[in-house]
Design goal:
Strand order of the largest sheet: 3-2-1-4
Helix content: 10-25%
Distance between the termini: 65 Å
Number of strands: 4
Strand content: 25-35%
Shape: elongated
Amino acid sequence: MATKFQHLKGISNYRLCLGTNNAKLEGYTYANMAGDVNIKNSTTVYLYTFADVTLFWVSILQKVVSLSIIEEAYITIIEYCKEVLWMQCFLEELGIKQDKYVLHCDS
């Protein structure tokens, strides 16, 4: 009599793959100058994709009032980079190493 897991023996080397074989972490950022009309804070938006699948996205008000478009873009990129450092460590724990990270900015 066969065990209930005997059918798994032949597929033990299979794995679940999302998206394409392009297993790279990429990011996209967008900043909206003075997005909140009441307090004049800019909005930071960024998202991550891995293997062409969106992992998560964030849309938050910046904690400071930006004095220029360049300053608000730098704040957005810094917030994104902090998250990428965490994600890089997480992916390395999973055995996925990536030498370069791509970031697409709106400006």
